[in-house]
Amino acid sequence: MNNAEKSADKIKVKKSIFKRLFVRVLVLFILAVIVSGTLNCIENIQRTRRFTRQLTESASKVATETFERSDINALLDNPDSEEYRKAVKTLRWICQTNHFEYMYIYIPNFDENKVTYVMTVADDDSENENVLKVRSAGAEVDHSLWDAEKEAWENPNLVTAYEYQNDSFGSFYTAFSAVQGKDGKPVALIGADYSLTQIYTEIIFYTAMRVLALLVVLAIVFLLVMLFVRKKMYNPILLIFEKIRGYFSDKADGTNTRKAFEPIKLGSDDEIQLLADYFNDMAHDVETYVEKNSALASEKAKNETELEVARRIQYGIIAREKNVVFADCFDVSARMESARQVGGDFYDCFALPDGRMCAVVGDVSGKGVAAAMFMAFAKTLIHEKMTENAEPDRAFEKINKELCSSNPEGMFVTAFAVIFDKNSDSFLYINAGHNKPVAVSNGKAEFLECKPCIMLGVFDDARYVVNSAEFGNGDIICLYTDGVNEATNADNEFFGNERLVSACQNAGQTAKGVCDGVYEALTDFTENAEQFDDITIVAIKNSKNRD
């Protein structure tokens, strides 16, 4: 027993293709043989019926021509004469030669539906002795004469035929022809009965024998073909299947992970071997892929760990959430969510040497580690220059020059910086290509109309303009990055500016209320949609006259 046969014994298939193929082909063979035998039988019966009709009519005609020279009435009156015996012998010879069941000469009485037999003979010897007695000369029998008999009587030169079935004798085919007297008028009818039941039985039996023989031959051929299919196709396929299942089972449960794969060699050099060769190539590719994937997984785990550390460091530099009060009159609330482990958004709030307070929100182009590194550099630089320079525009120009000179990847930063003075009811701001903030005053929220300057890190000779805006007691200014208004839900619909303004207006009249309100509205809008950009929100409230 070879490997393929052993594999076939091991594997239990719920729905075996081989078994289904075996059964269906066998059924098709049997149906084909039955249909072929049935059609052949029908054709033989039809051909035999045509032949029987011709034979019966021909024999009846011959008998009629033979007995036209005889005196029918004399034969009827002298059944013991030598001429009668010769006539009976002649009629029986015709009957036996053509294998008729019966032949008979009779005189019909159409008025009384009776017939008078002149003589009757049968093919079978015992039956012949019986009919000679029962249907002897002069025997009169009641008989409903058929149209074929009437037609033969009325047309002496015509041979008519009639097919009938009798419960006692079965199915018969009978030909009639008239015996004419010397005056040309019919004096008697000659009938010849041919048993269709017997011939049908013989045809069916002969066809059944042929079908049986054909079935035996086809069964032998079929078994040989199926044995060939099982040995050359089914068993090799099962062997391949067992190898595949065993290989991937070992991979799945972690056993034999270092065991070298043994290529499948059937030695057949056919399509099955080609299939095995494809699996061998696939297994080799899987081995290579697994090795590379293991290395990549290890490297990815290492990177994930490093990124998580970087994330913690970033949130150490920039708090994820922050709520502080400056100079006892400016409430600051901030929140940041990175799209990845680390991101490029940042914010900062710090006191300036002259007692003023500075808040800044920025967004570095790109995402991931590179953006995070550039962000840390930009945040530190902004804090440093804004602290060193009393004039914000001069500070931004220095920040821009240093970013341009230390920017090999061509990254840039958008930033919005605001400077608050507790002794003033307004604030100063610089917009370096950033989103317009939302100002909330007297319960009404709207965008702060401000003309943006160019982004930081693009051109080293860029100039930045300081602007001012009113900021009375109870007013709130909300700074944010584009990860807020450009956030999308599952239907790819943007959160947009209108929802942002509405969230600011409907939030609680505190810095934390605005910050949390915007974030909650954004979360409800996006639901479980993937976050594609960093989100940063900073809200500052003027609370000079606290209750």
From TrEMBL:
Membrane spanning residue stretches: 21-39, 203-229
Domain HAMP: 262-291
A biological-process GO annotation: signal transduction
Gene3D superfamilies named in the record: 6.10.340.10, PPM-type phosphatase domain
This protein's UniProt keywords: Hydrolase, Membrane, Transmembrane, Transmembrane helix
EC code(s) of this entry: 3.1.3.3
Enzyme class: hydrolase
Signal peptide feature range: none
A Gene Ontology term for the protein's cellular component: membrane
GO molecular function: phosphatase activity
Name of the protein described by the UniProt record: Phosphoserine phosphatase RsbU
